[in-house]
Amino acid sequence: MAQERNPKRQRFSLGGPSGDTSFEDYLTGNSRHVSSSSEEDFDQENQDPQLNQEEDENEEEKEGEEEDFSNENLPPRPTHRPSTTSGTATSSSSNPVHNINNSIKTTSSTLAKNTSYHILIRLLMPNTSVPITRLLHLPATLLFEQLNQALAMALDWSGTHLWKFTLQTPPSKPLNIHATPDPRREIANIRDLHASHNLGHVDKRKDLDSKKVRLLDVWGAHQRDAVRKLPMFYTYDPYGDPWFHRVTFLGVAEEGLMASDMGVELFKKGQQVWCFGGSGAPVPKDVDLEDEFREEGDRLEWDVEMVNEELRFIEVEQR
């Protein structure tokens, strides 16, 4: 809940008081004439004692009223000093980078060794007549470094370009199906921190090491819902001709689910990373030549068996 903010006090330039008027009197509209020493002596000799007493009483009464008015309008005095520690803890606990790093340090892979996730990857190409998507079955302990390899194999990317996964703040309304990453909403990047493009620069407020972050560190049941529900994008060749993909977490797979249960044939016993559906053939890297070299029918064809044959080479590391 947002805290109520007190209105700011505005400063106004009112000019300065005259040399014989105090700043307080200047603001209240009172002016004071400074008399000479002879005039002061004359006043003291000729002043009426009774009148002087009445003036003193009136002055004391006026000062008392002003003090009461000031006290009535003062804000209530705090009963205790607010704790800055709790504020810092709240801020840290709501920071996705902090939460993911905390999961890396405190959550063992053995807790999720039998857990798998299903994700949908969609290439964001508004002009294509056929959506290019892949459905993947992935162990929760898979590193994002390995997820990058799986996506390159599933979409037939060469894997020679740089890449990154991006987490964004949620939009005020649902994202358009073709919406690309918005740099203004970027709050975290998962990428290879040792790649040449970093040139030694790592932004610890945003950058996470893809060789350390596992899928469970983002989507695990122990993770905060605010982190698990963050929109995620995968960008291939971010510093050249970028290809944007939306990564959607579909949920936890049923425990013990086999590829054969979904009609998928695998080429390696115990294969943990596999594709079980999708649409659209991979696109050529140079999209300007797409219409010239590919027939309409070719855009529909892709082979899930060939994808799974490639995915068998991904070994899931346990730590």
UniProtKB/TrEMBL annotation:
Tell me the segments the record calls region Disordered: 1-102
- Biased composition regions of type Polar residues, renumbered to the chain: 28-37
Acidic residues composition-biased segments? 53-70
- Lineage, top-rank taxon, reads Eukaryota
Q: Matching Pfam families, A to Z?
A: PRiA4_ORF3
**InterPro entries from the UniProt entry:** MM3350-like_sf, Plasmid_pRiA4b_Orf3-like
Coiled coil stretches, renumbered: none
**Where is composition skewed (Low complexity) in this entry?**
81-94
Q: Which residues form the Plasmid pRiA4b Orf3-like domain?
A: 122-256
UniProt-recorded name of the protein: Plasmid pRiA4b Orf3-like domain-containing protein
Which species expresses this protein natively?
Answer: Aureobasidium subglaciale (strain EXF-2481)
